[in-house]
Amino acid sequence: MHDEMGKLTFQPYGKEGQAIYSVSRGGLNLELMKIADTFPDVNLHFNEACEGVDPREGILRFKNTESEREQEVKAPLIFGADGAFSAVRYSLQKTPRFNYSQQYLDYGYKELTIPPNADGSHAIEPHALHIWPRGKFMLIALPNVDGSFTCTLFLPFDDEADSFEHLQTDKEVLEFFQQYFADAIPLIPELLKEFRENPTAGLVTVRCDPWQFDERILLIGDASHAIVPFYGQGMNAGFEDCSILYDLMEAHEEDWSAIIRTFNDTRIKDGNAIADLALRNFIEMRDWVADPQFILRKKIAGYLHEQYPEKFLPVYSMVSFSNIPYSEALAEVHAQDALFERILAIENIAEKWNGPEVEQVFREWLAEREARLV
């Protein structure tokens, strides 16, 4: 965490040895294609944009992005994995009883670059996510293997005094960074050029129900549950869709009607839950991580997990370091909020954060919770 004076503080994600990973999307896509290409019954077709689907006939329409040649393909089973603005989903939206919503944040984002040092090393600590939390907005930096960092500025689009709307000139941009991110300026030598040339993009959450049509078409990944990036779970949730489908294939012996029906009936609540968790984590990253009470809460949470590893797991660890369903993690948010409201009310808690009074409140909370479950 970088404060406005450039002072650094470190907040671990979990216990020793636990970390999240910054992975190149392009590199990952390439590796997945290489693996898929080793299967004799998989065919890869490039530059074919899906224009939509006739769900009742199972016919997909494609247009080649280079030759503009159009073609139709009929398939007995279709997976719509075509992203947040899915053409397959758009076609399903026209069918009866299909519910859909998209919600944009009032925030946009712009990417900037911290280049590597002359010797190829990282200019700042590479084994960390760097956050400049500023209450209503923030700057983050994620390390890359080539020694660079990809920085992202999250800022309101307009209305606010500090917003993209008010950063139209080089002077305004430089004054804004000098006020809020002064220690980042020497790290981003192309700041003004990148700010002018790089686009300002939006942040959208997509929800829909059902995710399937006639047990023959299934939406997965961002096509069914696109989320904002603040939990680092968007791609993970898509991969989890695949692992759950694989388990269902094993359980139902590739009875696709049963697989798709079960997936649709059980997975939607988790897609909605990680959407809510990601929105909540935005507030945490831009604001709470700079709040002494929140930092104290995280310290107490780590202590409780260390003392009661089978009874208490921080929500972040549930989401990032376990296979606990997202919907269960979201339910735990509300339970743990109630717990920490009681713990932080202890007099002089900053001096007693790892003492018997905290453990007593925790045991009482745990007993009440277990009694409710019975």
Strand-residue fraction?
A: 15-25%
| Rounded mean pLDDT score | 94
Which overall shape is indicated by the principal axes computed on the Cα atoms?
globular
Q: Which strand order spans the largest sheet, edge to edge or round the barrel?
A: 6-7-8-5-9
| Sheet with most strands | 5 strands, antiparallel
**What class do helices, strands and sheet pairing give?**
alpha+beta
Query: Percentage of helical residues?
Result: 40-55%
**Top-tier CATH class of the largest domain:** Alpha Beta
Number of strands: 11
> Any low-confidence stretches, pLDDT <50, length ≥5?
none
**The CATH architecture of the largest domain:** 3-Layer(bba) Sandwich
The secondary-structure element order is HEEEEHEEEEHHEEEHHHHHHHH
Our count of helices gives: 12
CATH superfamily of the largest domain: FAD/NAD(P)-binding domain
Separation of termini? 42 Å
CATH topology of the largest domain: FAD/NAD(P)-binding domain
Number of domains: 3
Rg value: 24 Å
Brief summary:
With 374 residues, the protein is of the alpha+beta class. The protein has helices at residues 25-36, 87-92, 170-180, 191-197, 222-225, 234-252, 256-286, 292-307, 315-320, 326-343, 349-352, 356-373, and strands spanning 48-54, 59-64, 70-74, 78-80, 99-114, 130-133, 138-143, 149-156, 201-209, 212-213, 217-219. The strands form three sheets. A five-stranded antiparallel beta sheet has the order 6-7-8-5-9. A three-stranded antiparallel beta sheet has the order 1-2-3. Strands 4-11-10 form a three-stranded mixed beta sheet.
